[in-house]
Specification:
The protein is built from 12 helices and 9 strands. It is an alpha/beta fold. The protein folds into 2 domains: 61 residues; 186 residues, Vaccinia Virus protein VP39 (Rossmann fold, 3-Layer(aba) Sandwich). The longest helix is centred in the N-terminal third of the chain and has 14 residues.
Length: 272
Amino acid sequence: MTAAEWLHQLESAFTDAHLDSPRLEAEMLVAHVLGVSREWLVAHPEAMPPRLAVAALAERRLRGEPMAYVLGKKEFFGREFVVRPGVLIPRPETEILVECALSRLPESSRVADVGTGSGVIGVTLALERSDLRVTLSDVSAAALKIAKENAERHSAIVSFHQGDLLEGFQDGSLDAIVANLPYVDPSDPLLDVGVKTWEPSVALFAEGGVKVIERLVAQSVKVLTTPGLLILEFGHGQAISIELILTKNGYGVEIESDLAGIPRVAVGTRSG
């Protein structure tokens, strides 16, 4: 079958499966198999992608597996990152966290990306700000393996640390912490079924939505220098809880919203 025939067939199948963007996903899948861009694919409808490869990936997508896992990659901050089951799929709203950090981190800051997962936050910070000394930290050895792969892929100069939150970091050893930690309440009725089914629960769920963040904030008081920055992503409706947690631990707080106007990132500052 030609690429054009595959695109027609896949678009129909993805439409029947009620996927949000059937044509786009069909193009992404066929282009991936051919190792070309979507623009090239559209210009060369006569191309002949390997039938078994296309069929195997299409079957995975039709079972509900997220496209990022099917393709093994996801774009973040204009770069392509390796993504596999075992780490969260990067979301556009997390770019707000990165932007907050880039605009606020003092020169030559020692920064830890805690709960790094695929490493997109820490790697992006290191690439955008070569002055920063960035450590990618996670409790999961499997996640750190993917983070290392992404760092090597982009030639990012970073270090790695395995531990639960700030376990193993010395007092006063960091100038800043950035974190996109689990913030979904397991009982949240609005949680997408696909996310719950396919993405790692350890990276998604926290009791009450804020318990893991609360632990990190408490630990950060000793690990951060003064002044120090703690920049956190959080979920819809959690702004008041996060602000209370931070102020209780001596932080001044700014809240930044995402592009949809939803409060999404807290910037905590300790001045003394």
